[in-house]
């Protein structure tokens, strides 16, 4: 997907220099493949270098949380802190996925037949956006405002790179299966903040093993928030992230 951190940057305020980008092959980025995590890590490092800084505070959301963690494992000396927001943990069996799939259908509710019909076939560009909006409503807790919030995320609509998604998700899965990731995390001397919304349809227990593995970790769970916690508890999200950054400011930009 594309960068959607406008609200996060506004929440963090002028005291933080925030740098964002559209990842390779996604959104406004014209970059083609290879769609590999190594390439995405190198792209992230290229952004760091272009900013002229040696160490950064990394904040990643959802897939971005996975990417930020992988970057920190490869380049811990370049990371002052890691904020891991709404990630899905390091379980090699992805045991959270059946719960997630059930919750998607439950939260879509009356629109589930339409979403399933779109999910089952090729879609026009307009149907691609409709399909995404229906699914993204499940990332928000309040059904009265979920559709409006999902529409905001889809505006402007840049399209989803499904080729990239399949390649990256497949590689991420293989990494969890082929490596003892909790053991790798136990040696990661990077201060880490885990931020969850307790109503995220991706069950939060999926992240428990990651929390247990990290030697320097703080976890904040925001009550009543879903997968996009800054949208539903902006004050709580701001306090968690800025409080963490203030306690971990080590000369990074």
UniProtKB/TrEMBL annotation:
Any one Pfam family match given in the protein's UniProt record, by short name: Abhydrolase_1
InterPro entries linked: AB_hydrolase_1, AB_hydrolase_fold, AB_hydrolase_sf, Epox_hydrolase-like
Domain AB hydrolase-1: 3-231
SUPFAM superfamilies referenced in this protein's UniProt entry, alphabetically: alpha/beta-Hydrolases (SSF53474)
Name this polypeptide is given: AB hydrolase-1 domain-containing protein
Lineage: Bacteria, Bacillati, Actinomycetota, Actinomycetes, Micromonosporales
